């Protein structure tokens, strides 16, 4: 085996190790910026809309998605180069994190829908209550008028 081949093999081995480290580092960074469970569960606000907005903010995973993308990029490059001896753990970690981020994003979308629905519902309920109050006032006035006519 020539010196050139040995050097190439060593360089490829180093590059493969570095690639694996890059994937693992990106996965660690993605995990580090995931929402904290207590931040999602314990939300403080003055009203329902405030709670929903705080929850929506807590469910933001844009940074984690960016780190996952980097992990997938380096993983794909390493796989195509056949640089990893055993990458099943990396593949499983990427898949698990991807599923978690999809779940969080789905929850965020649902909270976003509620954020727009709850104020509309409140407005409709207030209008309904006002109409009902107006009808009761009209009925009371009609009863008063009827009593006044009966007395006259």
From TrEMBL:
Residues 128-152 have a biased composition (Acidic residues). Pfam families: DUF5790 (PF19103). InterPro entries: DUF5790. Residues 111-152 are annotated as: Disordered. This is Uncharacterized protein. It comes from Halomicrobium mukohataei (strain ATCC 700874 / DSM 12286 / JCM 9738 / NCIMB 13541) (Haloarcula mukohataei).
